[in-house]
Write a structure and sequence with these properties.
92% helix, mainly alpha, 1 helix
């Protein structure tokens, strides 16, 4: 079996087409890399914004909880004052009965 001879022009033509294909693939790959990086950056920025919002909401909830704790403490004070008043009324009633 005889190997067909290939002309230099054919090799040059194939080489040029191959170089063009490699350049096209490289260009497409660079475009996809750029698009991927941009998408990742946008996603990263969105994640940071969500995290910032969550942090703000947690701080707001902590403030609300602190205020609720303060109100609960005030109610406990009011309850204790009510108990003291009740004790005074009982003492007064006892003293009035004795008198």
């Amino acid at each position: 079996m005889e190997i067909p001879s290939i002309s230099k022009e054919s090799v040059d033509l194939v080489s040029t087409k191959f170089d063009t294909i490699i350049a096209d693939v490289s260009e497409r790959m660079n475009y996809l890399i750029q698009q991927t990086c941009q998408s990742a950056e946008r996603h990263h920025e969105q994640c940071i914004a969500v995290a910032d919002d969550a942090t703000w909401e947690m701080d707001r909830l902590r403030t609300i909880i602190e205020r609720c704790d303060e109100i609960e403490l005030e109610f406990a004070k009011i309850k204790r004052i009510g108990e003291i008043v009740k004790e005074f009324k009982n003492r007064v009633a006892y003293l009035e009965k004795r008198a």
